[in-house]
Amino acid sequence: MRFQPILEYLPIYEAGKPIELVVREYGIQANKVIKLASNENPFGVAPAVQNKVAESVSKMPLYPDDSYHSLKSALSQKYGVPESQIIQGNGSDQIFDFATRSVLNPGDKVVQNGKTFSMYAIYSRQCGAEVIASETIEHDLDALLDLAKTQKPKILFLCTPCNPIGDALDRSDIYSFLAKIPEDMMVVLDAAYLDFAKTRDSNKNFEAKDIISKFPNVVYTGTFSKVYGLGGMRIGYGISSPEIIRAFYKLRPPFNVSQLSQLAATEALKQESFVESYLKSNLSELKKYESFADLKGLDFFESYTNFITIKLDKAKLNSSELFEKLLSEGIILRNLKSYGMNAIRITIGRPEQNETVIGRLNEIL
Known about the structure:
alpha/beta; Aspartate Aminotransferase, domain 1; 2 domains
């Protein structure tokens, strides 16, 4: 069978290792495995959300309301934007897919940071576009602006806070940067980790309503996978100008978010105390990892997320070897070798999980 030529060069996205793999390959009981690899909420979901899903299982045979009115109404209230400027996605990943397919043709260019979420490049290359990355690890807006001017991309991806690094941009710098971007260049602003950033530093916060009103070429994306604990339900959203959202809807398949996912997300938006409790715990536990790294003389990136990325060169450790060793013991972290880095990314877990991981790292180091 002859496939599209581009598929010969496209990588397959590598997700964090699942608990099931550790159970199969190492014979470790599932409840003994510590998974801190995929930036999930270690406290799960709010009880009210679980109850909502449990009482709604009888709706599984039915297609969802394809207008997604309940969800979009809740998001409209949260962000202060009309429902006509919101689109739901099967994870925020699907919004990136809509963005690339809506404007890219073979040979077009896309600009992104040197180290950033790998799906931006994958979706872009699926469209035959050339992906141009800055040479920086953390975001350098001057470098990105130079690329935007010289390369004239159709799309620029901006992830703040950034996965897999954890750095975040100040609101004033974002606004200044966007003001210099041509109006016909789409900017996808990935805000998956924004709740964590504004908890640590309010200067890192920016409002979707304000951004898209000032810059109609911006697509703001959000997810329910992080603070709301709905990674397994696959639900996200995009907020932008009516023109862009209409274009995205022409690419959207019907019923792109499941019945139970919509119900869970709508209920999750009501659980502010659950979210606040998690954010408080996350920041407190994150600082424990920072203190540990400082004590051991390890370099790390200052994080405004629910993970920390620790570099291993000073410890003369190989990230792949460390990853495999801990995996065999039932501790799943994220090896960043695929990003060209000798580093590990650790999701901030529950206090007892973090104590175990820090203790084991201390023994190894």
